[in-house]
Amino acid sequence: MQISRIYSNKDDLFHPIDFNFGKHADRLNVIFGDVKKPKDKKRDSHNLGKTTLLHLIEFLMLKGTAPEQFLVKHQDRFAGYQFFIEVALNSGEFATIRRGADNPNKVALTKHAESGRRLVDLPDDQWDHAELSREEAVKLLDGWLDLKVLKPYDYRMAITYFLRAQGDFSDELQLQKFQMGKDAHWKPFVAHLFGFSESPVQRKYELDDSIGALKQRQAEQAAEVQYREEDLPKLQAQISVLRQQVEELEAQLDAFEFDAEERRIMKNLVDEVEGEISDINERLYNINYDVRQIDVAMEHKDRFDLDEVATIFSESNILFAGQVKKQYEDLVDFNKKVTRERNAALRTRRTTLDKERVELESRKTSLDQRREQQLRVLRSTDTFDKFKTLQLELSEQKAQLVYLDEQRKKLEVVAATALQVRESERERGRVVDEIKAMVARPTPIYENFSRVFNAYCQRVLSHEGIFYFHVNSNGNFDYTIGLGTPGQTGKTSSQGEGTSYKKLVCALFDLALLKVYEDVGFFHFVYHDGIFEALDDRKKLALLEVVREQTSTMKIQYIMTLIASDLPRIDEKSPPTFAEDEVVLRLHDDGADGRLFKMAEF
User: Fold this and answer.
1) Cα–Cα distance between 111 and 96 in angstroms, integer?
2) Which of 5, 9, 17 is nearest to 596 (CA)?
3) Rounded CA separation 356/362 (Å)
4) Residue 221, Cα to own-chain centre: how many angstroms?
5) Exposure b/e, 234-267, CB count within 10 A at least 16 = b
6) Contact 33, 561 (CB under 8 A)
7) Is 487 left (phi over 0), alpha (psi -120 to 50) or beta?
8) How far is it, in rounded angstroms, from Cα 7 to Cα 98?
9) 3-class state of residue 443 by DSSP
10) At a CB cut-off of 8 Å and minimum separation 6, what does 220 contact?
11) Where are the beta strands (DSSP E) in 310-439?
12) Which of 145, 370, 480, 498 is most enclosed, with most CB atoms within 10 A?
């Protein structure tokens, strides 16, 4: 696919742009910003529309709209505009897309055999499809483009790699549109693009999300249970014992025989209730002691007085100044910092102790009531009084049995979720191993790309071009790209992180990828916005040499934007870098006529 023409229904405000493509793709496509008023400081050659053209192409290639998009942001300026883009399909046919500023969700598409047709006045009934939504148009155009390499992804997933605005030169693969989203949205596609299977990469992210959701659900479920997952067997045993006690007590109450229950109460009172009360009393004593010690420690104030120290030094005829004074001041500051941190820790500890004390006192009150009730049963000589008391005990035991049984059910749910987490984590481990094994076996596409990319970096940047895939510390599919360190094969240097070199690495990355796919159904164009800006002239010329070599086969269409001051020159007498027929759009700073849209700046 290449771009052949862009025009609108208002030629006087937006002049048609005819690109070099197909058998003329060996000529570059330069969007050139000229300076006609170099001495007028109020003018600017950077605001002519070079980048706006790129955004217009994105719009015509059916990118979704957003508030910051220029046609939406300045809707009043573009009311009534209809835009058209003609693209050369890999099949040899042409397709024209019509999309208006007034209703960007209404798209028209048609195919035709010859290029250069002007379809502004073509009635809707003569378009192949005149009333498509954007989503429907994307699906149809994806079929017409027939970019087999991308399947199962559509053309929108990759087109931005070949429409690089200034903000897209910071990373070769993570474009601006990917930076706000999760890696799961684009890294599986990257794996696919270089011949790897995207399935395990996608599955790893799905498992991460699933495990995260399961752990969140497990935490919510666990918050409703007073027991831990490992307490489930103990809880089930406790329920079994309590159920047996309830059944035995019911039988004794029915028979008016209380001896066995009295023996059980006596044993419970001695072995459990009294023992737990004693333990609580000891813990409360320790808590009260610790709280008192914390209060005393927090009441302590720093007594160090710097003025007193200065007086002592003075009385001893010792000079207290310079470094000595600074050291004492640093000591005082350090002491204050330590005191603040200590007090913060003490306050946190006191809060914890107060909370524990309230819980223990509440539990002790409950145990005291239980002890009193059990002693009343043991001391009572009135059979009916014992009967009523034991009936109350039976009701409490039944309520406790219901509560424990509910806790058991909830804990079983927690345990089931925990099992799902463990099973998912085991599967994730297997998927990570699959990804590791996958990246250890380079694909032909990846190997071919690495060879071309390295050759381009050597020619333009005089450094080894490094690119490889690996599994990162999170077990995810990842990549490393950069320039090599001289004398250390395979090791990236920091030089490739500089803005200028990063821009060149991104450009060479695009060219290498297009080179690898130049003979198959793929994109066959690239738009580099401001590629020469802030580059050394020698690097500009070296890049241009690679571009011209690659476009000489007429398989790749190269579109670039630059301003006059960015033209590479060997010396002051060097000829123009671009032929006249390579400048497909000439803009300038001398009024509205020099802008992309012949209107006031917006």
Assistant:
1) 6
2) 17
3) 10
4) 28
5) ebeebbeebeebbeebeebbeeeebeebbeebee
6) yes
7) left
8) 10
9) coil
10) none
11) none
12) 145
Whole-angstrom distance, CA of residue 525 vs CA of residue 153 = 19
Q: How many CB atoms lie within 10 A of CB 351?
A: 10
Rounded Cα–Cα distance for residues 249 and 260 (Å):
9
- 111, amino acid identity: K
For tokens 């145990």, the residue is 367
- Read off the pLDDT of residues 525-548 as tens digits, 9 standing for 90 and up: 999 999 999 899 999 999 999 999
| pLDDT confidence tier of residue 585, bands split at 50, 70 and 90 | very high
Mean model confidence pLDDT for the chain: 84
Tokens standing for 63?
């990118």
Nearest to 363 by CA among 278, 255, 248: 278
pLDDT for the residue numbered 178: 47
C-alpha span between 92 and 462 (Å, rounded): 39
- Can you give the pLDDT at residue 116? 92
At 489, which helix (H) or strand (E)? strand 488-492
173-207 pLDDT, tens digit per residue, is: 765 544 445 788 889 999 999 999 999 999 999 99
Is the distance from CB of 431 to CB of 200 less than 8 angstroms? yes
Q: Is the peptide bond before 152 cis (omega within 30 degrees of 0)?
A: yes
> What CA–CA distances, in Å, run from 553 to 25, 524, 542?
8, 12, 18
d(CA 498, CA 502): 6
Cα separation, 409 vs 14, whole angstroms: 71
State the pLDDT at residue 45.
52
User: What are the Cα distances from residue 395, in Å, to 236, 243, 247, 383, 479?
Assistant: 20, 12, 12, 18, 66
How far apart CA 6 and CA 525 sit, in angstroms, is 15
CB distance 235 to 227 below 8 Å: yes
| Dmax (CA) of the chain | 124
Environment class of 379 (CB within 10 Å of its CB; exposed 0-12, middle 13-18, buried 19+): exposed
Predicted TM-score (pTM) of this structure: 0.72
Whether 557 and 551 have beta carbons less than 8 Å apart is answered as: yes
Residue 295's SS3 state is helix
- The predicted structure's pLDDT at residue 326: 61
Torsion of CA 209, 213, 214, 215, to 10 degrees: 100
